[in-house]
Write a structure and sequence with these properties.
CATH superfamily of one domain: Glycosidases
CATH topology of one domain: TIM Barrel
Strand order of the largest sheet: 2-3-6-7-8-9-10-16
Radius of gyration: 20 Å
Largest sheet: 8 strands, parallel, barrel
CATH class of one domain: Alpha Beta
Helix content: 25-40%
Strand content: 15-25%
Distance between the termini: 30 Å
CATH architecture of one domain: Alpha-Beta Barrel
Number of helices: 11
Number of strands: 16
Order of helices and strands: HEEHEEHEEHHEHEHEHEEEHEEEHEH
Amino acid sequence: MVISHPRRRRLRSLAALGCLLLTALPATLAFSAPPDPARAGSPGPAGSSRGAAATRTASAWLPYWDVEDAYQDALSHAGQLHTVSPFWYKIASAGRLEGHPGAGNARIVEGLHRAGIDVVPTVMDMDTMEPGRLAKILTTPTDRAAQVGALVALADSNDYDGVDIDYETITTTPTATYEKVRSAYAAFVTDLCAALHSRHKQCVVTVSAQTAGTGRIWDYAAIGRAVDRMRIMAYDLHWASGEPGPVASTDWYDEILRRATALVAPAKIEMALPAYGWDWRADGEGSARNVTWKQAEELRRKEGASYQFDTVSGTPHFTYRDGKVPRTVWYQDARGVAVHLGALRKYGVRNTSLWALGFEDPGLWKVLANG
């Protein structure tokens, strides 16, 4: 099974929106500002650069298309969140980034900071990078340096605390070239993190799950040495274009973490949990519809479908009929996360991420607080 571009599949259904252009400083100038003494030290998941309590073990993404609900959700759970990553930016070229609508919203940034939450925006490559384009940037030293410069310039803007890199188009790199791209991406992350750390900024990298048959593009060991936190997207075990089934499972989490913790310190790992699911035709024909937990539960109640819980995978599901067409929905809720956290405890991983704020079962926060 190939697991690739999980957020691309979730973003495709959004209406096309205009972009706010952010042109990066030239790489030769991007590192000119002196570091801020107040940010001394490299912040990690257990302690925010803004003084968040060590008991905060969660981070979460903030979707730009539902920013206000997500923002209020973050403030409601500020006692558990050390970091929020607004899903705000994407690559335009090697030396230039673009912002989604609302990127850099000062009210959001300042409000999160007042709550003691670090703001580490996500930069993605989906829907801007044709196949092979990002790989070319990474494997061309001058382009790679320009990309580092653009990201450091972004981190310096808007009082951000660092950046989160979510580059997924390289996951489908052909076998003939993947070793070169894998090495180049690891070098890119190493250079970026060193530059960010020199400015007392956080370096967070989001990767897909690595198992026996997936995730080979990521050099976990090299990434783990360089970053403050490595977020593993532990979702889309079954996905929109695949067969119906759970978005995650207990056994899958065990395999992911067994491999990851052998290469990366558990304190640096964040297991990114789903707060969504997929709504398939029961026969598996066509592409599934994406649903948040809230949407799934609203649909279940509307259709009068009975809640079912698969004890093997540790995920809820239900079936209903859309006219004459039977459909099946697999998603995630607090009960399922409580089951899956057992794998995290087994491997000493305390930190989690959530995709995404505003999507989730409210009971999830108590489950996370209980570990």
